[in-house]
Amino acid sequence: MQKITPFLWFNDNAEDAINFYTSIFKNSRVINLSRYGEGAPVPSGTLMSGTFQIEGQEFMVLNGGPHFKFNEAISLFVDCESQAEVDELWGKLTEGGEEGNCGWLKDKFGVSWQIIPRALGELLNAPDPAQAQRVMQAMLQMKKIEVEKLQQAYDGS
Predict the structure, then answer these.
(1) Are 94 and 105 in contact (CB under 8 A)?
(2) What is the pLDDT of residue 142?
(3) Cβ of 113: how many Cβ atoms within 10 Å?
(4) Cα separations in angstroms, 111 against 19, 69, 96, 131, 151
(5) Which of 23, 50, 51, 119 can bridge 31 by disulfide, Cβ–Cβ 3.0-4.6 Å?
(6) pLDDT of residue 107
(7) Of 68, 90, 107, the domain-final residue
(8) Distance of alpha carbon 50 from alpha carbon 63, whole angstroms
């Protein structure tokens, strides 16, 4: 087990979330599932907690009831190698969820994600402050980050 593991509290759909996330990311797997037994406040066999892995990062989940909700104070940042990866993840994660600004979204479970192409950081770190500023201004106008538009802003075109 890794030293620090994100722990996600769901009302009653943690198993759906595990199945959703592991279906989206190619390098993912379910590690374990623990179910409620007889006498629990939910039907016997309902997922109590689970552990899964996405791209080497382990996550734990709990079906803990409606006491807590997700918000944007915590998000999952995904470093995308290409626009194709951004497009694929954005499309899948926003299905039933909602788009935010600047590469942020909420999935159908309310979990916040940042789907960010690696090129954004590279272009924002331009040695010319004017180029970096143009990239920043372009990014601030976007929901899903589009590398081609960032590059055009960088180039001044």
Answers:
(1) yes
(2) 98
(3) 20
(4) 15, 9, 12, 33, 29
(5) 51
(6) 98
(7) 68
(8) 9
